[in-house]
């Protein structure tokens, strides 16, 4: 159990390097996430995935059975105009021994997207990362799975459903009321 908390703290600290957001103030109901900048549909996460509250990311889910993390983030204000390959490097800050084993251009939401599968170590623990990044309507979206290597295929199957379901919803600039 201690290793779970250490892993989680490391993942959250690394993810904080990839985002300058604070206090996202969003809500996630019935597979729809919305905040003052973005609104999108992911579908529901299975009961294996527990939602975590991380101020600087839209959605973070942790698989309590196998120490995997899925996070989804959308950023409009101050999003970078850099190429997707450059933006991918931001995710990898803090990881060691990075090896991109797959990198392909594809389309998400009728936009050019970069899909990468990466092997890397975090605090000496090997992880496999499935990463999608794309821009739409002036916003940058990251969809990320970080998994132990031995459970990657199982986690990726669920993650692929989230990616397949992902849809940006028009009218993202709506008022959000937080509890």
Q: Could you explain how this protein is built, in words?
A:
The chain is α+β, with helices and mostly antiparallel strands. The protein has one domain: Protein Transport Mog1p, Chain A (3-Layer(aba) Sandwich). It is built from three helices and eleven strands, in the order αββββββαββββαβ. It has helices spanning 2-17, 84-91, 152-165, and strands spanning 27-29, 32-34, 39-41, 49-52, 59-63, 68-75, 96-108, 111-122, 125-136, 139-148, 167-168. The strands form two sheets. A seven-stranded antiparallel sheet has the order 4-5-6-10-9-8-7, with helices on both faces. Strands 1-2-3-11 form a four-stranded antiparallel sheet, with no helix packed on it. β4 (49-52) and β5 form a beta hairpin. The longest helix has 16 residues, at 2-17. It is globular, with a radius of gyration of 15 Å. Mean pLDDT is 83; it is low at 1-6, 13-23 and 172-179.
């Amino acid at each position: 159990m201690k290793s779970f908390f250490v892993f989680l703290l490391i993942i959250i600290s690394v993810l904080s390097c990839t985002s300058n957001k604070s206090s996202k103030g969003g809500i996630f109901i019935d597979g729809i996430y919305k905040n003052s900048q973005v609104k999108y549909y992911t579908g529901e996460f299975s009961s294996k995935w527990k939602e975590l509250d991380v101020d600087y990311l839209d959605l973070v889910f942790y698989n309590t059975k196998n120490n995997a993390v899925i996070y989804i983030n959308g950023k409009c204000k101050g999003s970078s105009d850099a190429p997707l390959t450059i933006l991918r490097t931001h995710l990898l800050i803090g990881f060691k021994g990075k090896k991109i084993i797959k990198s392909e251009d594809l389309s998400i939401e009728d936009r050019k997207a970069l899909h990468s599968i990466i092997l890397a170590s975090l605090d000496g623990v090997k992880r496999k990362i499935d990463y999608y990044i794309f821009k739409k309507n002036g916003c940058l979206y990251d969809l990320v799975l970080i998994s132990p290597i031995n459970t990657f295929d199982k986690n990726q199957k669920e993650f692929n459903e989230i990616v397949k379901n992902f849809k940006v919803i028009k009218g993202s600039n709506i008022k959000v009321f937080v509890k």
